[in-house]
Design brief:
This protein has 14 helices and two strands; from the N terminus they run αααββααααααααααα. It has helices spanning about 1-5, 10-25, 30-60, 80-95, 105-115, 125-145, 155-175, 180-185, 190, 195-205, 215-220, 225-235, 240-260, 265-280, and strands at about 60-65, 65. The protein is globular, with a radius of gyration of 20 Å. It binds 3-methylbut-3-enyl trihydrogen diphosphate and magnesium ion (MG). Magnesium ion binds near residues 171, 172 and 175.
Length: about 280
């Protein structure tokens, strides 16, 4: 379970946490760095738990270039139990690792706050809940607590949620237009009728092209490859692809500017690096 589901991702979240910690505490002992790494590993375990559930819910087939966990022979719906085993391991590791840390409860609370069960309506709300909090904010917040340095919490929070938004918008774009050989997964958002950056943009553009509204409504959210293809060609006709490229360039330029204006020099380079990794993930 651990080898198949925890190992093999990009480790963006754990590296953001460790990088942030190192920027805030330049004189940590080996032991302390090991403790911080254990907590960072918990973020990857959390990610594995989310992805297992997500893939069951979406009926996905591939993840990280391998079959999804629930698709392995003999796993099936036991995947739910396996996900919960991973989730409960987190608390054990945190309790064990942070036994003597004054911020142990605060760190545990950040983990407890991350929830897979949510149903907000607006795209930004969805993204804040499903991605930004655990992908960008939690690693930064946990590192700040472990380093006992929360001076720039508010600025970090704003940057983290913007990074998360960019990350999820990209994920939405790749789900629709990405190459499964590169992303390691087969997209399903159009068949599932998901509220994504791509579909929000399409709906916006349909206001200027009402003649396509019916085509969109009849084919979006249908479990058929033919319908999926029809929606995809409509998206191309509406230039949603070009819109994304422009959005990504503008948004990341603005975000880079926010980071450059950030007061804390050491953190600046961690955030800049993290952002550049997000931008090069295709
Ligand atoms: C995918 O996350 C799920 C989202 C929140 C969009 P990643 O793209 O970070 O997945 P791994 O861990 O690197 O495989
Ligand atoms: Mg997706």
């Amino acid at each position: 379970l651990f080898e198949h589901t925890v190992i093999g991702g990009k480790c963006s979240r754990s590296r953001l946490l460790v990088g942030t910690y190192n920027a805030l505490d330049r004189h940590a002992t080996r032991e302390r760095i090991q403790e911080v790494s254990n907590v960072a590993a918990c973020v990857e375990i959390l990610q594995a738990f989310f992805l297992i559930f997500d893939d069951v819910m979406d009926g996905s087939t591939m993840r990280r270039g391998k079959p999804c966990w629930h698709r392995l022979p003999g796993v099936g719906l036991s995947a739910i139990n396996d996900g919960l085993i991973l989730d409960s391991a987190i608390n054990h590791i945190l309790n064990d690792t942070l036994r003597n840390d004054p911020n142990k409860d605060a760190v545990s609370n950040v983990f407890a706050h991350v929830s897979v069960f949510h149903s907000p309506s607006l795209y930004t709300d969805i993204v804040n809940h499903k991605t930004s909090y655990y992908t960008c904010y939690a690693p930064l917040r946990i590192a700040m607590l472990l380093a006992d340095c929360t001076m720039f919490a508010e600025q970090c929070k704003q940057i983290a949620f913007k990074m998360g938004y960019l990350f999820q918008a990209q994920d939405d774009y790749l789900d629709c237009f990405g190459d499964p050989l590169e992303t390691g997964k087969v997209g399903s958002d159009l068949r599932e009728g998901k509220c994504t950056w791509v579909t929000c943009r399409a709906v916006e553009k349909l206001k200027d092209h009402p003649e396509y509204t019916r085509l969109f409504e009849e084919n979006f959210g249908q479990a058929s490859e033919e319908c999926e293809m029809k929606v995809k060609s409509l998206l191309l006709k509406l230039h949603v692809k070009e819109d994304f490229v422009r959005f990504e360039a503008d948004y990341s330029r603005a975000l880079l500017n926010d980071i450059e204006c950030f007061v804390l020099g050491d953190l600046k380079s961690v955030l800049r690096y993290s952002l550049s990794e997000f931008l090069n993930r295709k």
